[in-house]
Each structure stands twice: as C-alpha cells, then as structure tokens.
Design goal:
Number of domains: 1
Strand order of the largest sheet: 3-2-1-4-5-6-7
Low-confidence stretches: none
Number of strands: 7
CATH class: Alpha Beta
Shape: globular
CATH architecture: 3-Layer(aba) Sandwich
Order of helices and strands: EHEHEHEHEHEHEHH
Helix content: 40-55%
Amino acid sequence: MSHNPPIAHWPGKTVWLVGASSGIGLATAQALHGLGAQVVISARQAPLLDAFCAAHAGAVSCPLDVTDAQAVQAAAGALLERGPIDMVVYCAGHYKAQRGFDFTLEELLRHQQINYVGALHVMAATLPAMLARGSGHFSLIASVAGYRGLPKSLAYGPTKAALINLAESLYGDLQPRGIGVSLVNPGFVQTPLTAQNRFHMPALITPEQAASAMLEGWRRGAFEIHYPKRFTRWMKLLGALPYAAYLPLVVRMSKEP
C-alpha cells in the first residue's frame, strides 16, 4: 500500500535538504542530483556547501543554522521566490552520548534545538506554501533510537522519538490535503556522528546505501523508511516488548563493562 504519492521521476522537482553537508543528507543530495532533481543543500558550513555545488552543476547552496528561526524563514522565503519546493528533507542532527548519571543540560538542550526544534522551524517556513499548492512532500530523518529508551541515548533518543511522533501527526493531517509525509528511521550508518561510538555497531551501512533505501522508499510511496532491515526489524521487535520484559533488558544493556 502506498501511503504517499510515489516519487520515481525527479527531473523538474526541487528538493531542499536541510543539514546535508555530510553523512546521509550529503549522499542523498548526490543521489537526487544524479537523478535530475534540482537540489538545494543547507548546513552551517558554507565551504562544504560550495564544494558540493562546484562538483554538482546546478545545485544551490543555502548556508543556514536551523536553530535560528528567522534565518530559516528568510532562507525558505528566498527559495520560494525562485519557485515551488517539491520536497523538504530534514537531515540535521546532533549526537553526543549522555547518561542519567553523566550529562550536561547544555547538551540536552542542544540536541533538542538541532534535532527537533530545527525541524519545527523548517516545517513552519515551508508547509504553508505546500498547503497553498496542494502538493509537496515533507520528510524527517529520525532514528530507530526513537523507538524506545536506550543506553547512552538520554539526549538523542527523546529528540528522535519526538520526530517520529511529529511525522505520524503530520501524516494524519496532511495526507488528505495531498501532502506527502515520510519518516526515515536509520539504524547504524557510517557518518561523522556514529564515528564517535566506541562500541560495535551491528549491520553498519554506508551513507550511499542509506540514500538508496530512501529513494526506494519514496518510489514506493512509503510512510516509514527504515534500514537496514536486518537490524531495524530486530529493533521493532524490541520496541514491541512490554515494560516487564523491556526495562530489565535495558538495565542489563546499560551496565558498564
């Protein structure tokens, strides 16, 4: 069953990828450009955006800090003056391991501002134009870390859980109005964020493999796009456990070696 209008033909479509100077966002921008989409790429580091545009003719650089609501509104306004935005992909993410006995409020709030509040800024700046046209697609990159509470994910997990809930709510409201909504829940992907991890990451895949899975999900009109399935299906099973089984497991997983 297609939950969204399937997207298989990209020429003529404008895609704004926010937070895409590296990792999954960058690989997805490269893949979409290769398929003929008009790619607009945003992140804080302008030199990385310029390098992308130099290597991908026709791509547009839009330096941006997602935590600055006014800057996001201004950027979206400038892009919309050029023409409609057919798809927005929110890729911005921040991750540092935090635990209940070893955390800083500054880090907790930084995760919230980048991973979740930034998505709200982008949503508020782009959805009205999509609703006015009666078409468009809004895609949020969350994580399987948002399914349930996990060790070392005190700051990161709750923001991804919020994105999952946000996407579900948006779908219910926007699907009847012709707007596509997709939720991307990756497992472990080789990115600058996961490079911090000092533990074994099962079923680790490349950003290019992640981008391929996303394109396939959009082609099918999927709501949730999760990958790699050999890992994410186990996470879904874990997420379905009752607390009586899940919480003792989390305690065991959380113990220091």
